[in-house]
Design brief:
Elements (H helix, E strand, L loop, with lengths): L11 H5 L3 H6 L17 H16 L4 H9 L6 H16 L3 H8 L7 H15 L4 H9 L2 H18 L2 H10 L5 H8 L6
Helix pairs in contact: 3-5, 4-5, 5-7, 7-8, 7-9, 8-9, 9-10, 9-11, 10-11
């Protein structure tokens, strides 16, 4: 009986290395928006959340500099880039609410709520109960609160049961409870 030998030639995966598919994911060190500037939906939306890490790393994690880079982002991705900066700063540094708020405030004031929304993604991933994100939103400036609670609840919907989501939304500042319920896709209260 013959013993089968492993194929000695390059594997299909190895043959693809260096292909166009691989190169579309490669970072261009001269382009701070690479590779996200090469993607269209549905991939671009997710890509920009993580592109912020590249932008932050290339700028020594200076949030003001990262927001300036986001301000020049292509094809209307400025807001998503701000969300990415909030996500990345919060996840990498894991500091308190006042620090996160201070960092988000270094960009365009009208886009700071997008940064706060991104921060809630990291906060909810760190604390699946929703308590940490809800506390951050409560501490945020008034103009940031509704988008913050909405984003936190959207993320909480990934980790918590509808019962827990309703508990969290029921425990936050009254006039922002509806934004929370919208984010969690809970039925509006009767």
């Amino acid at each position: 009986s013959a013993v089968s030998q492993p194929h000695a030639g390059p594997s299909h995966a190895a043959q693809e290395h260096g292909s166009r598919r691989d190169s579309q994911f490669a970072l261009d060190p001269n382009n701070p928006y690479s590779p996200c500037d090469r993607f269209a939906d549905p991939y671009a939306d997710s890509c920009w959340l993580f592109q912020a890490f590249v932008i932050l790393r290339n700028g020594d994690f200076d949030p003001a500099g990262a927001f300036r880079m986001c301000d020049a982002a292509p094809r209307g991705w400025v807001g998503r880039c701000y969300e990415g900066v909030g996500l990345q700063l919060t996840g990498v540094f894991q500091r308190d609410d006042s620090w996160i708020i201070e960092q988000c405030a270094t960009g365009q004031p009208e886009l700071a709520p997008r940064c706060a929304a991104g921060a809630t993604v990291a906060l909810t991933a760190m604390d699946w109960s929703g308590t940490r994100a809800a506390g951050f939103c409560a501490a945020s400036p008034v103009a940031w609160k509704a988008p913050c609670y909405r984003a936190a609840a959207t993320m909480l919907a990934v980790f918590a049961s509808p019962v827990r989501q309703a508990e969290v939304c029921g425990s936050i500042e009254g006039k922002y409870a509806e934004a929370c319920r919208q984010g969690a896709a809970l039925d509006s209260p009767a």
